[in-house]
Amino acid sequence: MNLKSLTLLLTAAAVPQVVVAGPCLYAICQAGCIGLVVTCYAGAGFTLVVAPPLAGPAVIACNVAFGGCTLACAALMFAPTP
Predict the structure, then answer these.
(1) Residue span of the signal peptide, if any (predicted)?
(2) Which of 19, 23, 30, 44 has a CA 20 to 30 Å removed from the CA of 12?
(3) How far is Cα 54 from Cα 33, in angstroms, rounded to an integer?
(4) Measured distance CA(24)–CA(31) in Å, rounded
C-alpha cells in the first residue's frame, strides 16, 4: 500500500460517519401516528373508516392531527442518525 492510499484510508476512518435511519425510523413513526389516530377516533365514538357525511368536527380534528403527525414522520426519512 502506498502512502497516498494509506493517507486516504486513515482520513476516511477519522471522519465521523453518518447513517440515515430513514425507512426504519419512518415506519416506527407512522405506526405511532396510526395508533394515535385510532385512539382519537375511538374517543370520538367512531372507527377509522367513517363515511364523509358522518364525519363530525372531532373526526376532522383527528384527521388534521394525523396529517401533521405523518408530515413530521416524512421529515425523518432524511434525518441523519449518528
Answers:
(1) 1-21
(2) 23
(3) 22
(4) 11
